[in-house]
Known about the structure:
Order of helices and strands: H
Number of helices: 1
Distance between the termini: 37 Å
Number of strands: 0
Radius of gyration: 11 Å
Structural class: mainly alpha
Largest sheet: none
Amino acid sequence: MRTLALLSSLLLLALHAQAQPLGER
Length: 25
């Protein structure tokens, strides 16, 4: 069940990375 945690963390990171540039612009 470690894969789930990794996937969730990756998803959160991707969301943050996409929200950062979008919010800045």
